[in-house]
Design a protein that fits this description.
167 residues; alpha+beta; 60s Ribosomal Protein L30, Chain: A; 11-stranded mixed β-sheet; 40% strand
Amino acid sequence: MAIKLLDPAADQSLPEYHVGQASRTCIYPGIAQCFAIAGWKNGEMLCTHVSPGATKEDIDTTFEYLRDMGGDQAQRWYVVGPFTHHFAVVKAQWRSVEAIGKTFKELKNKNADRWILDVTTERNVFSWGIDVKAVPCDWAPVVYFDYKKTGRGNDWNELKVHKFVRF
């Protein structure tokens, strides 16, 4: 599938196979097996929604777009997704956290902190999946995340920053 690059905006909604830049919020709808990725750069986010169905070419294009948008200068990267569901997909390019880390090296950003959070438990609470929302901190290299049942109202639940682990 062709990766679609969106124009920068204050608020983004990124379905699978999309890459964008957001200054206020980024919503990743329908995280059932996917990963939501956000990089913090100067109070804004570089964002993408990676599907387990993404080919090597899709992943390469995604990370090329992120690099071209300044991903090599992002201070922090965050990856949020249900490990159990994503890693179980036999054709997935990423079958482990180590594989994700290897791909991040393509950003040529050795100084960035990288954080990851397994949301299998949160995703399993609902029968189909979750929407994930990312919001950048204005003054520090931090992105905050919330989740809710896919397509349901505005009842966001906080994903605790302290639960993220370095990778």
